[in-house]
Specification:
Order of helices and strands: HHEHEHEHEHE
Strand content: 5-15%
Oligomer: single chain
Largest sheet: 5 strands, parallel
Radius of gyration: 15 Å
Structural class: alpha/beta
Number of domains: 1
CATH topology: Rossmann fold
Strand order of the largest sheet: 3-2-1-4-5
Shape: globular
Number of helices: 6
CATH class: Alpha Beta
Length: 170
């Protein structure tokens, strides 16, 4: 699939929406997460006889806005009958702004956040990936411009080796 906008164009579009059109970033995040959830519902309908009902979806989040999108996806899928599990690949105190608001909204629905910070967290993530019908990569958005090392490299390695499909934002 060919992207409609380049990374730079998408970032500029978002910034214009926020500064010039006065659309809150939280609204943009909600729209992005809901749109992604719609695509995931269609994918699950093709993969499972019972569609989204009870589908295990592992959502792997970072602490930034892409992670915030992941929390919206989790919330939306949960309200539609799926069983999402959210894995946070950053210390909880690093969540801020719109991502924090959406993490709190997810928890407000009774959703749990599994922190992936060490070997125990990586084992939980691996089990979550193995048991998933679908995986959502909400680690990094379009702004990533550094080498991936440490925990993130290990998590991405697990995602790359996953059996179920991994859906990511490009």
């Amino acid at each position: 699939m060919k992207p409609v906008l380049t990374r730079e164009q998408m970032r500029a579009f978002d910034q214009d929406a926020i500064t010039d059109a006065h659309v809150p970033g939280l609204v943009l995040m909600e729209n992005a997460g809901r749109g992604a959830a719609e695509v995931l519902v269609q994918m699950l309908a093709q993969r499972r006889a019972d569609g989204i009902r009870g589908a295990n979806v592992s959502i792997v989040c970072g602490a930034g806005n892409n992670g915030g999108d992941g929390f919206v996806v989790a919330r939306r899928l949960f309200t539609l009958g799926a069983s999402p599990t959210v894995f946070l690949c950053a210390p909880r105190p690093r969540l801020a702004g719109d991502a924090l608001i959406n993490a709190e909204a997810w928890e407000g629905l009774g959703g749990a956040i599994v922190e992936v910070g060490g070997d125990a967290g990586l084992r939980k993530l691996t089990r979550g990936i193995d048991d998933a019908d679908l995986i959502v990569d909400a680690l990094f958005g379009t702004g990533l411009d550094r080498e991936i090392t440490g925990l993130f490299a290990r998590v991405i390695g697990r995602l790359n080796d996953a059996r179920p499909p991994v859906v990511e934002r490009r």
